[in-house]
Amino acid sequence: MLDLFAGPGGWSHALHVLGVRDVGLEWDEWACKTRARAGQFTIRTDVAMYPVWPLVGRTNGFIASPPCQAWSMAGKRLGLLDQPLVHQAVADLAAGRDTRAKLLTACKDPRSLLAAEPMRYLHALHSAGDPEWIAMEEVPDVLPLWRQYAVILRGWGLSVWTGILNAADYGVPQTRRRAILLASRTRTAEPPPPTHAQTAEPESLFGPGRERWVSMAEALGWGATDRPTPTVCAGGGPGGGPEPFPSGARKTLTDARDRGTWKPPALGSRSGRSSRRTRSGRLRPPDSDTLVCTCGQHRWSWSLRSSNQANATVRGVNEPAGTLFFGHRANECMWVAERHSLEAEEESAAPESIRITATEAGILQTFPADYPWAGNKGQQFSQIGNAVPPLLAAHLLAPYLSKTLTRSEFTLAA
Protein backbone atom coordinates (compact mmCIF):
# COMPACT_ATOMS: atom_id res chain seq x y z
CA MET A 1 0.00 0.00 0.00
CA LEU A 2 1.64 3.23 -1.16
CA ASP A 3 0.58 6.57 0.37
CA LEU A 4 1.83 9.71 -1.39
CA PHE A 5 1.91 12.94 0.66
CA ALA A 6 1.22 10.76 3.69
CA GLY A 7 1.15 13.57 6.26
CA PRO A 8 0.78 12.61 9.92
CA GLY A 9 -1.09 9.41 9.10
CA GLY A 10 -4.79 9.94 8.40
CA TRP A 11 -4.89 7.20 5.75
CA SER A 12 -2.30 5.14 7.63
CA HIS A 13 -4.27 5.13 10.88
CA ALA A 14 -7.38 4.05 8.95
CA LEU A 15 -5.44 1.17 7.41
CA HIS A 16 -4.11 0.22 10.86
CA VAL A 17 -7.69 0.02 12.15
CA LEU A 18 -8.54 -2.17 9.14
CA GLY A 19 -5.62 -4.47 9.90
CA VAL A 20 -3.16 -3.59 7.12
CA ARG A 21 -0.09 -1.37 6.77
CA ASP A 22 1.12 1.11 4.18
CA VAL A 23 4.35 2.87 3.29
CA GLY A 24 4.06 6.64 3.37
CA LEU A 25 6.10 9.11 1.34
CA GLU A 26 6.28 12.43 3.15
CA TRP A 27 8.62 15.43 3.19
CA ASP A 28 7.54 17.44 6.26
CA GLU A 29 9.90 16.78 9.17
CA TRP A 30 7.28 16.96 11.91
CA ALA A 31 4.72 14.85 10.06
CA CYS A 32 7.43 12.21 9.65
CA LYS A 33 8.20 12.36 13.37
CA THR A 34 4.51 11.97 14.19
CA ARG A 35 4.31 8.95 11.88
CA ALA A 36 7.39 7.44 13.54
CA ARG A 37 5.83 7.87 16.98
CA ALA A 38 2.66 6.20 15.69
CA GLY A 39 4.68 3.25 14.37
CA GLN A 40 3.96 3.94 10.70
CA PHE A 41 6.37 3.07 7.88
CA THR A 42 7.68 6.24 6.25
CA ILE A 43 10.19 7.30 3.62
CA ARG A 44 11.09 10.94 4.10
CA THR A 45 11.39 12.24 0.57
CA ASP A 46 10.15 14.78 -1.94
CA VAL A 47 7.32 12.97 -3.74
CA ALA A 48 8.14 14.93 -6.90
CA MET A 49 11.72 13.62 -6.91
CA TYR A 50 11.32 10.04 -5.68
CA PRO A 51 11.95 7.36 -8.34
CA VAL A 52 9.01 5.13 -9.22
CA TRP A 53 10.89 2.08 -10.52
CA PRO A 54 11.42 0.48 -7.05
CA LEU A 55 7.64 0.37 -6.64
CA VAL A 56 6.71 -1.18 -9.99
CA GLY A 57 5.22 -4.65 -9.62
CA ARG A 58 5.03 -4.27 -5.84
CA THR A 59 2.13 -1.85 -5.29
CA ASN A 60 -1.33 -3.25 -4.62
CA GLY A 61 -3.04 -0.12 -3.28
CA PHE A 62 -2.36 3.52 -4.17
CA ILE A 63 -3.34 6.54 -2.05
CA ALA A 64 -2.66 10.20 -2.77
CA SER A 65 -3.71 13.41 -1.00
CA PRO A 66 -1.62 16.16 -2.66
CA PRO A 67 -1.10 19.34 -0.59
CA CYS A 68 -4.20 21.51 -0.77
CA GLN A 69 -2.73 24.89 0.17
CA ALA A 70 -2.63 26.11 -3.44
CA TRP A 71 -6.33 25.31 -3.89
CA SER A 72 -7.84 25.78 -0.45
CA MET A 73 -10.23 28.62 0.38
CA ALA A 74 -8.00 29.25 3.40
CA GLY A 75 -5.17 30.42 1.11
CA LYS A 76 -4.68 32.59 -1.98
CA ARG A 77 -6.05 29.85 -4.26
CA LEU A 78 -3.43 30.41 -6.95
CA GLY A 79 -3.92 26.76 -7.88
CA LEU A 80 -7.10 27.80 -9.67
CA LEU A 81 -5.06 30.06 -11.93
CA ASP A 82 -2.53 27.26 -12.47
CA GLN A 83 -5.20 24.67 -13.22
CA PRO A 84 -4.65 24.59 -17.02
CA LEU A 85 -0.96 23.90 -16.42
CA VAL A 86 -1.77 21.08 -14.02
CA HIS A 87 -4.17 19.53 -16.53
CA GLN A 88 -1.42 19.72 -19.15
CA ALA A 89 1.07 18.04 -16.82
CA VAL A 90 -1.39 15.19 -16.14
CA ALA A 91 -2.03 14.66 -19.85
CA ASP A 92 1.70 14.66 -20.62
CA LEU A 93 2.61 12.29 -17.77
CA ALA A 94 -0.17 9.90 -18.80
CA ALA A 95 1.47 9.73 -22.22
CA GLY A 96 4.93 9.17 -20.75
CA ARG A 97 6.15 12.75 -21.33
CA ASP A 98 7.65 14.58 -18.35
CA THR A 99 7.11 18.32 -18.92
CA ARG A 100 6.96 19.23 -15.24
CA ALA A 101 10.10 21.38 -15.20
CA LYS A 102 8.87 23.55 -18.07
CA LEU A 103 5.35 23.89 -16.70
CA LEU A 104 6.58 24.66 -13.21
CA THR A 105 8.24 27.86 -14.40
CA ALA A 106 4.82 29.15 -15.46
CA CYS A 107 3.00 28.24 -12.23
CA LYS A 108 2.01 31.05 -9.88
CA ASP A 109 2.19 28.63 -6.95
CA PRO A 110 4.85 25.90 -7.20
CA ARG A 111 2.68 23.60 -5.07
CA SER A 112 -0.04 23.51 -7.73
CA LEU A 113 1.84 21.00 -9.88
CA LEU A 114 2.01 18.51 -7.00
CA ALA A 115 -1.56 17.53 -7.87
CA ALA A 116 -0.17 16.04 -11.10
CA GLU A 117 2.42 13.89 -9.31
CA PRO A 118 0.11 10.88 -8.76
CA MET A 119 -0.10 10.44 -12.54
CA ARG A 120 3.68 10.06 -12.80
CA TYR A 121 3.47 7.12 -10.40
CA LEU A 122 0.29 5.66 -11.90
CA HIS A 123 1.70 5.66 -15.43
CA ALA A 124 4.77 3.71 -14.33
CA LEU A 125 2.80 1.32 -12.12
CA HIS A 126 0.26 0.61 -14.88
CA SER A 127 2.98 -1.00 -17.00
CA ALA A 128 3.06 -3.86 -14.46
CA GLY A 129 -0.71 -4.02 -13.97
CA ASP A 130 -0.55 -2.10 -10.69
CA PRO A 131 -2.25 -0.95 -8.57
CA GLU A 132 -5.39 -2.96 -7.88
CA TRP A 133 -7.15 0.02 -6.36
CA ILE A 134 -6.68 3.79 -6.08
CA ALA A 135 -7.99 6.36 -3.56
CA MET A 136 -7.28 10.09 -3.87
CA GLU A 137 -8.55 13.09 -1.90
CA GLU A 138 -8.36 16.86 -2.26
CA VAL A 139 -10.37 20.05 -1.71
CA PRO A 140 -13.56 20.36 -3.80
CA ASP A 141 -12.02 22.69 -6.41
CA VAL A 142 -9.76 19.84 -7.56
CA LEU A 143 -12.72 17.74 -8.74
CA PRO A 144 -12.24 18.72 -12.45
CA LEU A 145 -8.69 17.38 -12.21
CA TRP A 146 -9.90 14.11 -10.67
CA ARG A 147 -12.32 13.82 -13.60
CA GLN A 148 -9.39 14.11 -15.99
CA TYR A 149 -7.62 11.34 -14.07
CA ALA A 150 -10.82 9.28 -14.32
CA VAL A 151 -10.91 9.49 -18.12
CA ILE A 152 -7.31 8.29 -18.32
CA LEU A 153 -7.79 5.48 -15.79
CA ARG A 154 -10.93 4.24 -17.52
CA GLY A 155 -8.88 4.08 -20.72
CA TRP A 156 -6.52 1.76 -18.86
CA GLY A 157 -9.39 -0.56 -17.92
CA LEU A 158 -10.20 0.59 -14.38
CA SER A 159 -13.62 1.35 -12.96
CA VAL A 160 -13.60 4.90 -11.57
CA TRP A 161 -15.88 7.08 -9.43
CA THR A 162 -15.33 10.77 -8.67
CA GLY A 163 -17.40 13.16 -6.60
CA ILE A 164 -17.71 15.32 -3.50
CA LEU A 165 -18.26 13.66 -0.12
CA ASN A 166 -19.08 15.28 3.22
CA ALA A 167 -17.11 13.74 6.09
CA ALA A 168 -20.03 14.35 8.47
CA ASP A 169 -22.06 11.80 6.47
CA TYR A 170 -19.61 9.13 7.67
CA GLY A 171 -19.55 9.91 11.39
CA VAL A 172 -16.82 12.57 11.39
CA PRO A 173 -17.81 15.47 13.71
CA GLN A 174 -16.93 17.95 10.99
CA THR A 175 -18.68 19.04 7.77
CA ARG A 176 -15.50 18.68 5.75
CA ARG A 177 -16.29 18.39 2.02
CA ARG A 178 -13.65 16.78 -0.18
CA ALA A 179 -13.20 15.77 -3.81
CA ILE A 180 -12.68 12.00 -3.92
CA LEU A 181 -11.47 9.64 -6.65
CA LEU A 182 -11.91 5.87 -6.22
CA ALA A 183 -10.75 3.37 -8.83
CA SER A 184 -10.45 -0.41 -9.04
CA ARG A 185 -9.36 -3.13 -11.44
CA THR A 186 -11.43 -5.84 -9.75
CA ARG A 187 -14.74 -4.26 -8.68
CA THR A 188 -17.12 -1.43 -9.52
CA ALA A 189 -15.79 1.76 -8.00
CA GLU A 190 -18.40 3.59 -5.96
CA PRO A 191 -18.56 5.66 -2.78
CA PRO A 192 -19.40 3.96 0.50
CA PRO A 193 -23.02 4.36 1.63
CA PRO A 194 -23.40 7.24 4.12
CA THR A 195 -23.92 6.21 7.73
CA HIS A 196 -25.05 9.60 9.09
CA ALA A 197 -27.27 12.51 8.04
CA GLN A 198 -28.05 16.00 9.30
CA THR A 199 -31.36 14.61 10.53
CA ALA A 200 -31.55 10.98 11.60
CA GLU A 201 -33.28 8.71 9.08
CA PRO A 202 -35.05 5.56 10.28
CA GLU A 203 -34.50 2.18 8.70
CA SER A 204 -36.85 1.50 5.80
CA LEU A 205 -37.40 -0.81 2.86
CA PHE A 206 -34.99 1.38 0.91
CA GLY A 207 -32.05 1.20 3.29
CA PRO A 208 -30.69 0.66 6.80
CA GLY A 209 -31.29 4.24 7.89
CA ARG A 210 -28.74 6.80 9.06
CA GLU A 211 -27.80 8.24 12.42
CA ARG A 212 -27.73 11.95 13.13
CA TRP A 213 -24.46 13.76 12.42
CA VAL A 214 -21.97 13.42 15.28
CA SER A 215 -21.63 16.66 17.24
CA MET A 216 -18.46 18.15 18.63
CA ALA A 217 -19.81 17.69 22.15
CA GLU A 218 -20.40 14.00 21.55
CA ALA A 219 -16.98 13.45 20.01
CA LEU A 220 -15.17 15.35 22.75
CA GLY A 221 -17.13 13.69 25.53
CA TRP A 222 -18.64 16.94 26.75
CA GLY A 223 -22.16 15.55 26.77
CA ALA A 224 -24.84 16.59 24.31
CA THR A 225 -28.40 17.87 24.52
CA ASP A 226 -30.64 19.69 22.07
CA ARG A 227 -29.51 23.00 23.61
CA PRO A 228 -26.13 22.60 25.29
CA THR A 229 -25.52 24.99 28.18
CA PRO A 230 -22.04 24.55 29.66
CA THR A 231 -21.89 27.15 32.42
CA VAL A 232 -18.71 28.75 33.71
CA CYS A 233 -19.11 31.40 36.38
CA ALA A 234 -16.77 32.62 39.06
CA GLY A 235 -16.92 33.63 42.66
CA GLY A 236 -16.60 32.10 46.07
CA GLY A 237 -19.45 29.64 45.87
CA PRO A 238 -22.67 28.66 44.11
CA GLY A 239 -24.29 31.69 42.54
CA GLY A 240 -20.98 33.33 41.72
CA GLY A 241 -20.90 37.07 41.20
CA PRO A 242 -21.78 39.61 38.51
CA GLU A 243 -18.39 39.29 36.79
CA PRO A 244 -17.77 35.74 35.43
CA PHE A 245 -13.98 35.85 35.77
CA PRO A 246 -12.79 38.10 38.61
CA SER A 247 -9.43 38.00 40.37
CA GLY A 248 -7.35 36.75 37.46
CA ALA A 249 -9.58 33.76 36.73
CA ARG A 250 -9.55 34.58 32.99
CA LYS A 251 -5.83 33.85 32.85
CA THR A 252 -6.29 30.71 34.95
CA LEU A 253 -8.88 29.39 32.53
CA THR A 254 -6.89 30.31 29.43
CA ASP A 255 -3.74 28.73 30.83
CA ALA A 256 -5.67 25.56 31.62
CA ARG A 257 -7.01 25.47 28.08
CA ASP A 258 -3.55 25.98 26.58
CA ARG A 259 -2.28 23.04 28.66
CA GLY A 260 -5.12 20.94 27.31
CA THR A 261 -6.41 20.20 30.81
CA TRP A 262 -9.67 22.17 30.85
CA LYS A 263 -12.95 21.54 29.13
CA PRO A 264 -16.50 22.84 29.54
CA PRO A 265 -18.40 20.92 32.21
CA ALA A 266 -20.68 18.07 31.29
CA LEU A 267 -23.81 19.72 29.95
CA GLY A 268 -26.30 20.20 32.75
CA SER A 269 -23.75 19.62 35.50
CA ARG A 270 -23.57 21.85 38.57
CA SER A 271 -19.82 21.84 38.93
CA GLY A 272 -17.43 22.91 36.22
CA ARG A 273 -14.16 23.45 38.01
CA SER A 274 -11.02 23.34 35.96
CA SER A 275 -9.39 19.98 36.58
CA ARG A 276 -6.09 18.19 36.21
CA ARG A 277 -5.19 14.53 36.09
CA THR A 278 -3.17 12.75 38.73
CA ARG A 279 -0.55 10.19 37.77
CA SER A 280 -3.21 7.53 38.12
CA GLY A 281 -5.20 9.30 35.42
CA ARG A 282 -8.01 10.39 37.73
CA LEU A 283 -9.36 13.92 37.64
CA ARG A 284 -8.72 16.16 40.60
CA PRO A 285 -9.66 19.80 41.25
CA PRO A 286 -7.07 22.54 40.64
CA ASP A 287 -5.01 24.05 43.43
CA SER A 288 -6.84 27.36 43.02
CA ASP A 289 -10.54 27.51 43.87
CA THR A 290 -11.27 30.45 41.58
CA LEU A 291 -13.35 28.61 38.95
CA VAL A 292 -16.84 27.74 40.11
CA CYS A 293 -19.78 27.00 37.82
CA THR A 294 -23.43 27.62 38.46
CA CYS A 295 -26.54 26.85 36.47
CA GLY A 296 -28.57 29.31 38.46
CA GLN A 297 -28.04 32.81 37.09
CA HIS A 298 -25.95 32.58 33.93
CA ARG A 299 -25.87 30.02 31.13
CA TRP A 300 -23.30 29.81 28.38
CA SER A 301 -23.57 27.89 25.13
CA TRP A 302 -20.19 27.10 23.59
CA SER A 303 -19.41 27.34 19.88
CA LEU A 304 -16.30 26.84 17.76
CA ARG A 305 -15.30 29.76 15.54
CA SER A 306 -13.00 28.76 12.68
CA SER A 307 -11.13 32.09 12.42
CA ASN A 308 -11.32 35.74 13.40
CA GLN A 309 -12.65 36.81 10.01
CA ALA A 310 -16.13 38.25 9.59
CA ASN A 311 -17.31 35.30 7.48
CA ALA A 312 -15.84 32.65 9.78
CA THR A 313 -17.82 29.45 10.30
CA VAL A 314 -19.33 29.32 13.80
CA ARG A 315 -20.88 26.07 15.01
CA GLY A 316 -22.41 25.21 18.37
CA VAL A 317 -21.03 22.23 20.25
CA ASN A 318 -24.23 20.32 19.50
CA GLU A 319 -23.29 20.43 15.79
CA PRO A 320 -20.33 19.10 13.80
CA ALA A 321 -17.44 21.54 13.38
CA GLY A 322 -16.93 23.36 10.12
CA THR A 323 -13.92 22.40 8.02
CA LEU A 324 -10.84 22.62 10.24
CA PHE A 325 -7.92 24.45 8.68
CA PHE A 326 -5.00 25.90 10.53
CA GLY A 327 -1.59 26.87 9.14
CA HIS A 328 -0.99 30.52 10.02
CA ARG A 329 -4.48 30.63 11.55
CA ALA A 330 -3.73 28.06 14.24
CA ASN A 331 -4.41 30.56 17.01
CA GLU A 332 -7.63 31.87 15.45
CA CYS A 333 -9.75 28.73 15.89
CA MET A 334 -11.46 29.50 19.18
CA TRP A 335 -14.13 28.29 21.54
CA VAL A 336 -16.50 31.20 22.13
CA ALA A 337 -19.37 31.44 24.61
CA GLU A 338 -22.77 33.05 24.20
CA ARG A 339 -24.55 34.19 27.34
CA HIS A 340 -28.12 33.09 28.02
CA SER A 341 -29.32 34.95 31.13
CA LEU A 342 -32.33 33.67 33.00
CA GLU A 343 -33.20 37.28 33.86
CA ALA A 344 -33.46 39.57 30.85
CA GLU A 345 -32.41 42.68 32.76
CA GLU A 346 -29.27 41.10 34.19
CA GLU A 347 -26.00 41.99 32.44
CA SER A 348 -22.59 40.35 32.62
CA ALA A 349 -19.61 39.75 30.37
CA ALA A 350 -19.22 36.51 28.45
CA PRO A 351 -16.26 34.23 29.16
CA GLU A 352 -13.14 34.96 27.19
CA SER A 353 -12.61 33.08 23.92
CA ILE A 354 -10.32 30.10 24.37
CA ARG A 355 -8.05 28.49 21.81
CA ILE A 356 -8.85 24.99 20.69
CA THR A 357 -6.17 22.49 21.71
CA ALA A 358 -4.34 20.15 19.35
CA THR A 359 -5.89 17.18 21.15
CA GLU A 360 -9.39 18.53 20.60
CA ALA A 361 -8.68 19.37 16.96
CA GLY A 362 -7.26 15.88 16.42
CA ILE A 363 -10.37 14.28 17.91
CA LEU A 364 -12.59 16.39 15.64
CA GLN A 365 -10.55 14.91 12.77
CA THR A 366 -11.23 11.44 14.32
CA PHE A 367 -7.67 10.79 15.44
CA PRO A 368 -7.39 9.08 18.85
CA ALA A 369 -7.12 11.45 21.80
CA ASP A 370 -3.65 10.06 22.57
CA TYR A 371 -2.33 10.30 19.01
CA PRO A 372 1.40 11.12 19.34
CA TRP A 373 1.61 14.50 17.60
CA ALA A 374 5.17 15.80 17.21
CA GLY A 375 6.34 19.40 17.16
CA ASN A 376 5.18 22.63 18.75
CA LYS A 377 1.57 23.83 18.70
CA GLY A 378 1.82 25.41 15.26
CA GLN A 379 3.45 22.33 13.75
CA GLN A 380 0.83 20.06 15.31
CA PHE A 381 -2.08 22.20 14.13
CA SER A 382 -0.64 22.31 10.61
CA GLN A 383 -0.49 18.51 10.51
CA ILE A 384 -4.02 18.14 11.84
CA GLY A 385 -5.55 20.64 9.44
CA ASN A 386 -3.94 18.98 6.41
CA ALA A 387 -4.78 15.40 7.41
CA VAL A 388 -7.48 13.18 6.00
CA PRO A 389 -9.98 12.26 8.76
CA PRO A 390 -9.10 8.62 9.50
CA LEU A 391 -12.75 7.63 9.91
CA LEU A 392 -13.61 8.94 6.44
CA ALA A 393 -10.51 7.21 5.03
CA ALA A 394 -11.54 3.92 6.65
CA HIS A 395 -14.99 4.08 5.07
CA LEU A 396 -13.44 4.78 1.67
CA LEU A 397 -10.88 1.96 1.86
CA ALA A 398 -12.76 -0.84 3.61
CA PRO A 399 -14.63 -2.15 0.51
CA TYR A 400 -11.41 -2.32 -1.54
CA LEU A 401 -9.72 -4.30 1.21
CA SER A 402 -12.69 -6.67 1.58
CA LYS A 403 -13.17 -5.37 5.12
CA THR A 404 -16.28 -4.42 7.05
CA LEU A 405 -15.94 -1.33 9.21
CA THR A 406 -17.81 -1.48 12.50
CA ARG A 407 -18.29 1.22 15.12
CA SER A 408 -16.52 -0.88 17.77
CA GLU A 409 -13.38 -0.92 15.60
CA PHE A 410 -13.23 2.83 15.23
CA THR A 411 -13.91 4.86 18.36
CA LEU A 412 -13.87 8.61 17.79
CA ALA A 413 -12.06 9.54 21.01
CA ALA A 414 -10.33 6.27 21.88
TrEMBL record:
Taxonomic superkingdom: Bacteria
E.C. numbers: 2.1.1.37
Entry keyword Protease: no
GO annotation, biological process: methylation
Signal peptide: none
Biased composition (Basic and acidic residues): 252-261
Residues at the active site: C68
InterPro entries assigned to the protein according to its UniProt record, in alphabetical order: C5-Methyltransferase (IPR050390), C5_DNA_meth_AS (IPR018117), C5_MeTfrase (IPR001525), SAM-dependent_MTases_sf (IPR029063)
Keywords: Methyltransferase, Restriction system, S-adenosyl-L-methionine, Transferase
GO molecular function term, any single one: methyltransferase activity
Protein name according to UniProt: DNA (cytosine-5-)-methyltransferase
